[in-house]
């Protein structure tokens, strides 16, 4: 079982690295202009939305990995 | 070996001759014995079921059932309906078994047993066989004042033995005066300070203030005030049973000093890919980080020594990470947390003499989260505590809501030899400990070792990640 938990931790680590890459490459550069003083708020709002979607995908993927690694234990 | 056997008459005659030197209960000459003439009905039962063997429950499940029922009845008479044990034929054997179980359960290097000086001789035999040290207490002292026992209790004590009655002089320990260790602790507060979070916050704050005198940077103040606020939240939760949402909500406010003192940078750094600037989003992250870290460390505080040992390993990893990133001042702040938790671990490890309580666990988590923010190593700090994050993730994905730990079903149970095993209750949550136990039951100490191995592995991943921070693809 310990090996499986180590594998799960390693999977989480990889997901964090990939998630970080997505944040820097796609979410970071997003910028909208033309709304005047509320530009930063709109930009942040959109980034929050994308970040939440990424977190949802991250948790969904993690759940799938968890079920795959710990199938027997988690179904008990 | 005789070629021909002796007749029944001869055997009975020989026995009568040899045993006529023995006393018997009907003679009226025995005045001091724990035994009596067997009851007439007991003789009938004994003769009828003489072939049964309690040592072979596979052949005699009915006998085993009676044994369990007897243990349950005896346990309930002694206020423990969950008592486990076996029925054996003599007092010496039962005393040896009880001491052996206690010794194996406590896993102490130099185990000691506190006994009154009128104790049954079998305890001396057992102590000799099992390598135990008997600590005698005067019988008359115990009868008058239980402090004679309290004075002898230390970290090596595995058992306190009371005597229900001695054969020779019919002396007995007054059971009403023999308090349990827990009762002694509650009354005298001599063994376990609960919660012991105060010692953690004092250790951490004093070391940080000493550091502040040499390096007066605002980041130190931010960590100190956040830790103190987290401690106060924990104290409230220790003293009053609060709802599941209390801690996350209250801990969110603990991030205020970091924001008010401006001890943060709005750039979120990721390995391999560089930084992302998220000015407003980052404020939310700061408010989010402290409750997450606090509750994550708190949720892993399930066994003796785990929370402090785990925080110590994660903090040392974070210190190395900060030194690699040449953030030396914050690295020393992380080192203060590492040593504060390590110092606490000395007394918190199995068998615990102190527990952190929510106040201690939240200080660990709050301080750790604050260091991650002021040191700009949020992502790496999360990697270093991945086993605890997994624990929270598994728990939440099986329970599917945030609830107070007192409301959940225990995911583990005890085996007969007091190891922990995963529960068969399907409603109990899945946790890290439950996964570790999936293969086989383990002792508490073994589980802690497994968790620490996972923490070291995560710490290594965090250090590798630190080296990746300088690399860009």
Jot down its keywords.
heterodimer; A: 76 residues; mainly alpha; elongated; B: 473 residues; Aspartate Aminotransferase, domain 2; 2 domains; 3-stranded parallel β-sheet; two-stranded antiparallel ribbon
Proportion of strand residues of chain A: under 5%
Oligomerization state of this entry?
A: heterodimer
Helicity of chain A, as a percent range:
over 70%
Structure summary, number of beta strands of chain A: 0
Tally the helices of chain B: what do you get? 20
How much beta of chain B, percentage-wise?
Answer: 5-15%
Low-confidence spans of chain A: pLDDT under 50, at least 5 residues? none
Give the tally of β-strands of chain B: 7
**Unreliable stretches covering 5 or more consecutive residues of chain B:** 181-192
- Give the SSE order of chain B as H and E letters: HHHHEHEHHEHHHHHEEHHHHHHEEHH
Largest interface: pair, residues per side: A-B, 34 and 43 residues
Average pLDDT reading of chain B: 83
Whole-number tally of structural domains of chain A: 1
- The span between the termini of chain B is 91 Å
Number of domains of chain B: 2
- Mean pLDDT of chain A, as a whole number? 78
Overall body shape of chain A: elongated
In words, what does this structure look like?
The complex is a heterodimer of chains A (about 80) and B (about 475). Chain A has about 80 residues and is an all-alpha fold. Chain A has one domain (about 1-25, about 40-70). Chain A has three helices and no strands. In chain A, helix 1 packs antiparallel against helix 2. Chain A is elongated. By secondary structure, chain B is mainly α. Chain B has two domains: about 60-75 and about 85-190, Aspartate Aminotransferase, domain 2 (3-Layer(aba) Sandwich); about 195-470, no CATH class. In chain B, about 55% of the residues lie in helices and about 5% in strands. Chain B contains 20 helices and seven strands. In chain B, strand 4 (about 265-270) and strand 5 (about 275) form a beta hairpin. In chain B, helix 9 packs parallel to helix 16 (about 355-375), helix 10 (about 220-240) packs antiparallel against helix 11 and helix 14 packs antiparallel against helix 15. The radius of gyration of chain B is 30 Å and the shape is elongated. Chain B starts with 7 loop residues before the first helix and ends in a 5-residue tail after the last helix. Classes of the chains: A mainly alpha (about 80), B mainly alpha (about 475). At the A-B interface, helix 1, helix 2 and helix 3 of A face strand 5, helix 13, helix 17, helix 18 and helix 19 of B.
């Amino acid at each position: 079982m310990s090996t499986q938990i180590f594998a799960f931790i390693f999977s989480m680590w990889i997901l964090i690295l990939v998630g970080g890459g997505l944040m820097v490459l796609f979410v970071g550069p997003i910028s909208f202009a033309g709304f005047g003083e509320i530009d930063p708020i709109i930009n942040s709002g959109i980034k929050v939305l994308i970040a939440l979607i990424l977190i949802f995908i991250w948790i969904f993927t993690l759940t799938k990995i968890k079920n795959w690694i710990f199938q027997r234990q988690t179904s008990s | 070996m005789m070629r021909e056997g002796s007749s029944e008459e001869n055997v009975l005659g020989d026995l009568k001759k040899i045993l006529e030197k023995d006393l018997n209960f009907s003679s009226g000459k025995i005045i001091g014995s724990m035994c009596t003439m067997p009851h007439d009905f007991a003789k009938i039962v004994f003769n009828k079921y003489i072939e049964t063997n309690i040592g072979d429950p596979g052949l005699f499940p009915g006998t085993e059932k009676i044994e369990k029922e007897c243990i349950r009845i005896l346990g309930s008479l002694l206020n423990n309906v969950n008592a486990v044990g076996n029925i054996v034929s003599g007092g010496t054997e039962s005393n040896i078994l009880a001491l052996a179980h206690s010794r194996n359960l406590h896993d102490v290097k130099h185990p000691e047993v506190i006994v009154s000086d009128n104790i049954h001789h079998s305890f001396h035999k057992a102590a000799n066989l099992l390598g135990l040290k008997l600590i005698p207490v005067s019988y008359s002292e115990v009868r008058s004042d239980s402090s004679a026992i309290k004075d002898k209790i230390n970290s090596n004590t595995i058992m306190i033995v009371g005597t229900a009655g001695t054969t020779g002089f019919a002396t007995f320990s007054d059971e009403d005066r023999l308090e349990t260790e827990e009762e002694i602790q509650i009354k005298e507060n001599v063994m376990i300070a609960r919660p012991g979070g105060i010692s953690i916050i004092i250790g951490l704050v004093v070391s940080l203030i000493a550091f502040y005198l040499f390096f007066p940077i605002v980041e130190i103040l931010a960590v100190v005030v956040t830790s103190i606020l987290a401690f106060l939240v924990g104290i409230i939760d220790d003293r009053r049973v609060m709802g599941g949402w209390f801690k996350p909500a209250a801990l969110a406010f603990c991030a205020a000093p970091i924001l008010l003192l401006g001890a943060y940078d709005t750039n979120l750094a990721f390995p391999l890919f560089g930084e992302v600037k998220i000015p407003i989003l980052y404020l939310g992250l700061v408010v989010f980080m402290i409750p997450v870290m606090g509750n994550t460390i708190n949720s892993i505080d399930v066994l003796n020594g785990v929370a402090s040992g785990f925080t110590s390993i994660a903090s040392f990893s974070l210190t190395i990470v900060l030194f690699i990133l040449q953030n030396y001042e914050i690295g020393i702040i992380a080192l203060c947390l590492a040593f504060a938790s390590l110092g606490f671990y000395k007394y918190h490890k199995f068998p615990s003499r102190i527990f952190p309580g929510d106040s201690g666990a939240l200080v660990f988590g709050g301080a750790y989260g604050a260091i991650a923010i002021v040191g700009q190593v949020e992502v790496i700090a999360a990697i270093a505590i991945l086993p605890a994050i997994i624990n929270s993730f598994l728990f939440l994905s099986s329970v599917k809501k945030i609830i107070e730990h007192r409301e959940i079903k225990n995911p583990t149970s005890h085996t007969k030899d007091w190891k922990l095993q995963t529960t068969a209750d399907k409603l109990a949550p899945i946790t890290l400990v439950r996964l570790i136990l999936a293969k086989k039951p383990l002792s508490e100490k073994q589980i802690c070792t497994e968790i620490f191995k996972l923490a070291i592995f995560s710490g290594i991943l965090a250090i590798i990640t630190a080296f990746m921070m300088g690399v860009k693809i």
